[in-house]
Amino acid sequence: VLFVGTKKQAQETIRGEAERCGMPFITTRWLGGTLTNFRTSRLRLKRLDELDTIAANDNFASYSKKMESQLKREKKKIQRNLEGVRKMEKLPGVMVVIDTKSEVTALKEARKLGIPTICLIDTDGDPEMADIAIPGNDDSMRSIDVVVRELCLAIAEGFQQREAKQMELQAANAANAQNNQGGNTMAGDSGAGGARRSRRSQFRADDASGGADAGGNAGGAVVEPAAKA
Questions:
Q1: Are the C-beta atoms of residues 3 and 14 closer than 8 Å to each other?
Q2: Which residues face 96 on adjacent strands?
Q3: Terminus of the chain with fewer CB atoms < 10 Å: N or C?
Q4: For residue 127, what is the DSSP state?
Q5: pLDDT digits (tens, 9 = 90+) for 13-25
Q6: Contact indicator for 1, 23 with CB cutoff of 8 Å
Q7: What DSSP line would sit under 54-103, residue for residue?
Q8: Are the C-beta atoms of 99 and 4 separated by less than 8 Å?
Q9: Residues 170, 166: Cα–Cα separation, whole Å
């Protein structure tokens, strides 16, 4: 779930609640193409990782003063605009937006990509821009805090339910695999024993039928002349 709120009233709340539930956010400025040109956004984030590595190794000491200033400026710019979506490896499934008038570009990109949007809309907002509209005062910090906090609680609860279901499925799959393995072993043993028993009984039946046929034929040969006589 991507949280978007670049208004001054929403920045602190969006950042705090999104970080608490582990969701990406944008609070400074929506860069055009953040979603529709997501590959380029990921490249800029990789560049930020490179700059962080350079800063961690020697703090730009191996560069000239001019290059050091340029690299630090570049790092600060990328960090300011894309720090909130640094861990977003794929397009979001849902986008939460505060004030449709301020985030028109973000809503257009979401609609173009088919990403559903949940928007806090005031009386001056256009509900047609949102898939799910939440009526409220998008200029009040308290109103924004209430809505965003409840949404984050719902997200956390959803993750807990998903993890519980995954654990149940894993336990059920392990139990089924163990039962299938035991059943296959028993079936193999019983199949082998049944085959041996069937061969022995077959041999005995063949011997018995062979002996009976021989005795019957002999008896018939002896009785038949006596009957004629």
A1: yes
A2: 3, 118
A3: C
A4: G
A5: 999 999 988 899 9
A6: yes
A7: HHHHHTTTTS-HHHHHHHHHHHHHHHHHHGGGTT--S--S-EEEE-TTTT
A8: no
A9: 6
State pLDDT tens for residues 131-146. 999 999 988 899 999 9
141 burial (CB, 10 Å; 0-12 / 13-18 / 19+) is middle
Could you tell me the two tokens for 133?
A: 């509209």
What pTM does this model have?
Answer: 0.69
From residue 115, how far is each of 35, 112, 119, 144, 214 by CA, in Å? Answer: 10, 8, 13, 22, 87
Nearest C-alpha neighbor of 98 from the set 130, 138, 150: 138
Token pair 């609860």 in the structure block, residue: 157
What letter represents residue 40's amino acid? T
Q: Which two tokens stand for residue 33?
A: 């193409």
